[in-house]
Write a structure and sequence with these properties.
Helix content is 56%, strand content 13%. It has helices at residues 19-48, 67-81, 87-99, 105-115, 134-146, 161-166, 179-192, 194-200, 204-218, and strands spanning 2-7, 54-58, 122-127, 151-157, 171-175.
């Protein structure tokens, strides 16, 4: 069962000396707010039932992770919840340790699928699907959709055609930040970054223009 949390976000082109700066701020705002939401969700799920695994993965444009790396992380997290599940990976580990090789994506999928049914319920959080490599998005969605019925998945992402096309009936929640939230965040970040502060501290018109460009590019988020 896939439950998707979609972070509404739009990009627009605009000729401006602040395009490069605003582009970085837009990405930063999205990652920070979305990361905070993910942490809240994960902590709440863990508080509700300490025995039910809550596993997660984060993808960021500054730190691309392959499908294999994400699935390997999920498997490691599941093993910490129940060490008896080591039986499913022991043989694979011994073979690859002997041959100095690594499991293929197919092997990792099989291991994940073998471990999941040993729990009553498993929550899977994937934050930043839109920031994953384009050729990794579809395999990740297909994998999540193939997991047994005891899994509940939460995906956080900007709107993607891939999500709409492959999962038209998916549960969806759109989140939008208010313009004043964006402006407050931008001003705080400028104060915290000496190089930006030196440029903009005595240029209130430039600061206001920067804020307006970012709010427009984000479409209000």
């Amino acid at each position: 069962m896939l439950t998707t949390l979609v972070f509404t976000f739009s990009w627009r082109r605009k000729n401006s000396t602040f395009v490069r700066i605003s582009h970085c701020f837009v990405r930063l705002i999205t990652s920070l707010i979305r990361g905070a939401l993910s942490s809240i969700v994960i902590n709440q799920l863990r508080m509700d039932d300490l025995k039910e695994p809550v596993i997660f993965a984060f993808s960021r444009y500054t730190e691309k992770r392959s499908v294999s790396q994400i699935v390997t992380s999920w498997i490691q997290q599941l093993l910490r919840y129940d060490p008896t599940t080591l039986q499913f990976v022991r043989e694979s580990f011994l073979i690859h340790d002997r041959d100095n090789t690594r499991p293929t994506e197919s092997e990792l999928y099989q291991l994940m699928s073998a471990i999941l049914p040993n729990f009553n319920r498993v929550f899977i959080v994937l934050d930043g699907l839109d920031e994953a490599e384009e050729d990794a998005r579809k395999p990740l969605l297909d994998l999540l959709n193939s997991f047994p019925s005891n899994t509940r998945s939460l995906i956080m992402s900007r709107p993607l055609e891939l999500l709409q096309d492959r999962f038209p009936d998916i549960s969806r929640l759109d989140i939008e930040a208010r313009n004043e939230d964006i402006e407050r965040f931008v001003r705080k970040r400028v104060d915290d970054i000496p190089s930006l502060y030196a440029i903009l501290s005595d240029k209130p018109e430039s600061m206001r223009y920067l804020c307006s460009v970012i709010k427009e590019k984000s479409g209000g988020m």
